[in-house]
Amino acid sequence: MPRTLFDKIWDAHVVDRLEDGTCVLYIDRHLVHEVTSPQAFEGLRMAGRKVRRVENTIAVVDHNVPTDADRLKGVNEPESKLQIETLEQNVAEFGVTYFPMSDARQGIVHVVGPEQGISLPGMTIVCGDSHTSTHGAMGALAFGIGTSEVEHVLATQTLLQKPAKNMLVRVDGKLAPGVTGKDIVLAIIGKIGTAGGTGHVIEFAGEAIRSLDMAGRLTVCNMAIEAGARAGLIAPDETTFAYIKGRPFAPKGKDFEAAVNYWKTLPSDEGAHYDKVVVLDAAEIAPEVTWGTNPEAVIPITGTVPNPADEPDETKRAQMERMLSYMDLKPGQKIAGTKVDVVFIGSCTNSRIEDLRQAAAVAKGKHVAPGVRALVVPGSGLVKKQAEEEGTAQILIDAGFEWREAGCSMCLGMNPDKLTPGQRCASTSNRNFEGRQGPGGRTHLLSPGMAAAAAVTGALTDVRELI
Amino acid sequence: MDKFTTLTAVAAPLNVANVDTDKIIPARFLKTIKRTGLGKSLFADMRYNADGSEKADFVLNQEKYRKAQILVAGDNFGCGSSREHAPWALLDFGIRCVIAPSFADIFFNNCFKNGILPIRLPEDVCAKLMDDAALGTNARLTVDLERQVVVRPNGEEFAFNVDPFCKHCLLNGLDDIGLTLEHTAAIDAYEARQPSWQPKIHGA
């Protein structure tokens, strides 16, 4: 029977099957960070258990690390400091490989995995973080888990799971200039909604997806969770193999050849069954921007803020009104021209070197508008180093952007980088929920180029006018 | 984990769709290394004013719902972040059961690991239960996991589905790590047949 990419990875990882169909699923890679792991290690300790496979496990600090240049002098916030120190004690006690803040390889866990060659095609990858879906761009089955499951994986290297349903999202045709992976995924979420993928693993396919570089693919899969999907997947191809080759933890020499031979068997078979199929035309996707407080509240930058009066469903209408009031927007107003206070370029969605280059291309020779604070937070110490060596960093610094250390930063307001109440932010992150970037903060999600355009003009702006 | 068998309790109505886990517990409260003590921060931004005082109109601040053990919620409850602090906060407040038309996958799964029963019921059924919940302490819902029914105050019953394995674990308060370790031989065998090219992460 023809199988999908998801089916193949799943089948290859079933260790055992319980009577009711629940599977004991083997986990190849477990990524650990400071926020969702302390209770899991504590559970192991209390039960007298060990980490079953330290060679499948990697830990990094990212969520609540400061991103200022002085951070190695010490973390001021006592609770953040305790979480970081707790992780450091746990990795030492249990023997887990760890990238601390002082290591150039430190960064956002979902940037580090692919960058280091830790996340590879055909693998099962988990992390106590919903954006683990990111790694699906490598052609891996990657999904977020809770802390109880983190403990379960540490102790057993498996999870108890039932297979998800298969969903295919195909984006046909070619992308217009100025349109990126971020715009594709925002358009998809706008079409299928924040629960459109619930219970499913989404495989992204089609010419527009194939044409993306790995950074663009990682962005698309990163936000699969914002469509409610457990995971996003993109079939591995030559772009994937070329990206992996030579990375520190990737297989080398003959092992690499053997791996590629296997990875080539992974793409979905002709005629494989999908429970749901959605098709988009790339030519119809513009640079997108969110207007509301969930990622499906999205419009093209050329569009206008929708009017709740046009919504027949009472609950949805009330929700729209609530969003407009929170975001301080009026029905029918053009979204372009909306003034911003802060611009954030970073997060596991858009902090890779390719993302920073997109921003620099727009910002080059211009300057951040008066009164706007613009932050660039590279996804890892190595991205930062590369950007500094090739000159991308200098372009952004000359344009008046703050150039910071790697971490999750202003994506989630767990570290010192936060919005203050009422501030409006053009952000390359993934969630525009109320208070996500700081209590009372207003978030507009968009691509790195669009963020840079907002920074230099001081307002939401169609990036195509600046390139 | 505490067993879940039968629960008869006051239900709090929260008729809002897409309640994400940032709403259930904002990120600034995740800086803990414990599972307990999060109840006071449950729904923090919906529940408290900036000065820390309670918002009188929020459901859990109303006297009749302060001891609610059931939450009747809207579509796509628990979407967003995978943080298990969300069910921990609900549990610490005293909520043992959440009923909604739909849930986000990760939150749904996390509930079972903590002795909370998430129940999916059709929208029209949830609307009736929402009406019952609006009566506060004058109406208690009963959730019978063994029989898989929710009983209204008027005696009307609604059947619900639950994964048999999850049901077994909840009814008996079982830690599933212990259950999985019964498969250790199969895990050993699986690891022994992994391809040799598969790289290992060594302390580097």
From TrEMBL, chain A:
Binding site for [4Fe-4S] cluster: C348, C408, C411
InterPro entries: 3-IsopropMal_deHydase_lsu (IPR004430), Acnase/IPM_dHydase_lsu_aba_1/3 (IPR015931), Acoase/IPM_deHydtase_lsu_aba (IPR001030), Aconitase_4Fe-4S_BS (IPR018136), Aconitase_4Fe-4S_dom (IPR036008), IPM_dehydratase_rel_enz (IPR050067), IPMI_cat (IPR033941)
Cofactor(s) in the UniProt record: [4Fe-4S] cluster
Enzyme Commission numbers on file: 4.2.1.33
One GO molecular-function entry: 3-isopropylmalate dehydratase activity
Keywords: 4Fe-4S, Amino-acid biosynthesis, Branched-chain amino acid biosynthesis, Iron, Iron-sulfur, Leucine biosynthesis, Lyase, Metal-binding
Pathway: Amino-acid biosynthesis; L-leucine biosynthesis; L-leucine from 3-methyl-2-oxobutanoate: step 2/4
Top-tier EC class: lyase
Co-factor binding comment: Binds 1 [4Fe-4S] cluster per subunit.
GO biological process: L-leucine biosynthetic process
Span of domain Aconitase/3-isopropylmalate dehydratase large subunit alpha/beta/alpha: 7-458
UniProt KW Magnesium keyword: no
Function: Catalyzes the isomerization between 2-isopropylmalate and 3-isopropylmalate, via the formation of 2-isopropylmaleate.
Subunit-structure text: Heterodimer of LeuC and LeuD.
NCBIfam families: leuC, PRK05478.1, PRK12466.1
Name of the protein in its database record: 3-isopropylmalate dehydratase large subunit
Automatic annotation (TrEMBL), chain B:
CDD domains: IPMI_Swivel
InterPro entries in alphabetical order: 3-IsopropMal_deHydase_ssu, Aconitase/3IPM_dehydase_swvl, AconitaseA/IPMdHydase_ssu_swvl, IPMI_Swivel, LeuD
Keyword set, alphabetical order: Amino-acid biosynthesis, Branched-chain amino acid biosynthesis, Leucine biosynthesis, Lyase
Source species, domain of life: Bacteria
Known EC number: 4.2.1.33
One CC-aspect GO term: 3-isopropylmalate dehydratase complex
Residue stretches making up the Aconitase A/isopropylmalate dehydratase small subunit swivel domain: 1-123
Gene Ontology biological process terms from the UniProt entry: L-leucine biosynthetic process
Similarity comment text for this entry: Belongs to the LeuD family. LeuD type 1 subfamily.
Quaternary structure, from the entry: Heterodimer of LeuC and LeuD.
Task of the protein: Catalyzes the isomerization between 2-isopropylmalate and 3-isopropylmalate, via the formation of 2-isopropylmaleate.
Protein's recorded name: 3-isopropylmalate dehydratase small subunit
